[in-house]
User: What shape does this take?
Amino acid sequence: MSSSLSNQQQQNNDQIAVPPTPRDILLDRIFRSLTTSFAWLTLLLIVYIVWEIGGTALPAIKEIGFGFLTGTTWNPNQGEFGILPQIWGTFYSSLLALFLGGFFGVAIAVFLTQDFLPHKIQIVLKSIIELLAAIPSVVYGLWGIFVLIPLIRPVANWLHATLGWVPFFSTSLSGPGMFPAALVLSIMILPTVAAISQDALSAIPSKIKEAAYGMGTTRWEAILKVLLPTASRGIFGGLVLGFGRALGETMALAMLVGNSNQLSLSLFSPADTLAALLALNFPEASEYETQVLMFAAVVLLFITLAVNIVGEIIISYSERSGGKK
Amino acid sequence: MILNRFLIISFLALQFLTFLCGCSEDKDNEQQPATENKVVLLHGAGATFPAPLYQKWIVEYQKNHKDVAISYDAIGSGAGTKLFISEQVDFGASDSAMNDEQVSKVSKGVQLIPATAGSIVLAYNIPDLGGRLRLSRELYVDIFLGKIRFWDDPRIKKENPNLQLPSLSVVTVVRSDSSGTTWAFSNHLSSISKLWREQGPGTGKELDFPGNAMFGSGNSGVSTKIKHSWGSIGYVEYGFAKRAGLDMAILENKAGNFIEPNESSPTETLANTYAQMPSNLRLFLPDPDGDTSYPIVTYSWLLLYKQYDNKEKWEKLRGFVRWGLLEGQKFSSDLGYAPLPPAVAKSALKAIKAI
Assistant: This one.
């Protein structure tokens, strides 16, 4: 009797709590060290990429120096290189995309989080918008060339004909150009902006919304004066991340922006971006031109890294302060 | 661009397959050929401009000559010349021949053989034009200099009074890669315009074009961009423009006549200028004479060494080049190239004999 009792106790002990065996400890240690090393490896990978690209670019950096950022010619024949038109085009297209994509992205986020729709339809719409992120870049490029450009060309050329004195409309839209590129780019960053803005809006404690209604606000007053300001940091972080994505986007832009080495304010003239420059020129580049292109890649890398880091900092800061509230 | 690359890769793969098939057929037809009849491998690389013609030659030639296997990589004039100088290929090919400095780097000596010729056209896309665009020499220089910004410019209107010229922006489409086509075109512009030569981009395989210029990769990349862009004009090899179904401008030549580009236009130009062919067979036609000459025409050269260490290899290569200069010229017109004038082919044949 007593022996069976002790057996039972032992079994219970097995099920409930035992000190970890040496094997458990070993496994746990291996697991921990593996996960930490993987985490560090990603960091190492970034450092390695920067190191490798920077190393290849070093001869070109030494030779061209700061003038690379302010030069406007790209002439491999005479060894003259400058990427100001590309830097300008990168920021111009991304900012345009940010205005369009940002506006629609935040509007969609408000629409989907503030009970305008039955819950089921909300979820369907949300996943459809997230699907936009799954469309390959090259498909966007083809769609832009064969559908979007013929669609917007008459409108653009009408704008040029009637408002040609405005610098933004000073040329006609021939086909590839800044405006179609920015339009496609805005669709591409829409899911990023919409998803992060939705998270920010739904992270607002329901008490705040109730309090706003309790003070007698209408729905729109509550959204515009209470909810959006409360979620503003998260939304802003989403915008910055969307901007970061737009800066580095390559394939669709290489197909749509027109690859033209010029500085122009006109929305309809062909332009170039850093990523498109890299995509077009790498295949046939000579050894020195490769170094120069690596220099351009370093510039692009720094711009996108900086923008993404700022975005992450803003988001994490907003999450922390949101928690305090 | 990616599509392009894909096409090239699949094309090469096809070549490889046909090559393999050829081999296996060999084995079927003749029971033990390998021991008695050794197959000589010849490898060449260079210009893309004449590549369709050279591939055709290789296929046709190997039908009757099973003892040689020739391969040609269309990697561009610049890259092909580089490989030829470092003696990594049996023959090279280039649209801009080789300059004296490059020739002096080859210890075995260089023999340039003009193998074919073609014309470069200005292809454009202007909707509802109602006719064919005529461009005088100053007009097309100024268009590529970016000085004429809109198609309804009074100077273009004056030259083309019957056309419905729209107020679209002029967009030029040019090559982004190192290209013999760009070299021949810019050489022509440099020779007809002081402004282009001295203040413009000058002559080169890769240039920084002024104005509203869009860059495209390869002859096919430029054709595609022209096709999708209203108000665009660009320079491409005749055959590419024709296959893409693009309109081609009528250009003014040195004699002041307006010449329409077509299959026979380079032939006329060559016939009008072959008397100028120098003894090294390096004749550029930056601005050809002759009333009927189409203005932008270029030869394309095969690059051969003056000495070959392997006698057997040279025998086979000579057989192929000879055949190309004689029989091979029949295939030119179909593919949009010009057959060589008999006198040029004759001097080329003489040159191979001397090697």
About this structure: The first helix of chain B runs from residue 2 to 29. The mean pLDDT of chain B is 84.
